[in-house]
């Protein structure tokens, strides 16, 4: 089974802080990266940073999963560009449960099963209380 590299790309520092929160809960994670597009940043620079991470992972024979916050936003467009150019998976609507599921299951599940579990955990974690 190939190692899975995780890249979180979001608006602002949301993804960076989300990854820190996940690591606070389940410990430091290898092959985990986060990039943020802050006000005034250049989208092309974000794409170059993401491309550097993705290229390196693919050259090492690793799978890559990119999480983004919002479908249609600039971070999402960067992720979808990576999917087109490098055959990586992109999941939108990232939340903390999705990342925890991925990190705790990435060494034991096949890629398709893993991505289904990740998206389901994200959905299952959304609850409404009175």
Oligomer: single chain
- Please give the largest β-sheet: 4 strands, parallel
Q: What do we call the CATH homologous superfamily?
A: Phosphotransferase system, mannose-type IIA component
Strand fraction: 15-25%
Helix content: 40-55%
Radius of gyration: 14 Å
Morphology call: globular
Protein name: PTS system, mannose-specific IIA component
Keywords: Cytoplasm, Kinase, Phosphotransferase system, Sugar transport, Transferase, Transport
Organism: Propionispora vibrioides
GO molecular function: kinase activity
Summary tags:
PTS system, mannose-specific IIA component, 5 helices, Rossmann fold, alpha/beta, PTS_EIIA_man-typ_sf, 52% helix, PTS_IIA_man, 4-stranded parallel β-sheet, PTS_EIIA_man-typ, globular, 130 residues
Protein described:
One of its GO terms (biological process) is phosphoenolpyruvate-dependent sugar phosphotransferase system. This is PTS system, mannose-specific IIA component. The chain has 130 residues and is of the alpha/beta class. It is built from 5 helices and 4 strands. Strands 2-1-3-4 form a 4-stranded parallel sheet, with helices on both faces. The radius of gyration is 14 Å and the shape is globular.
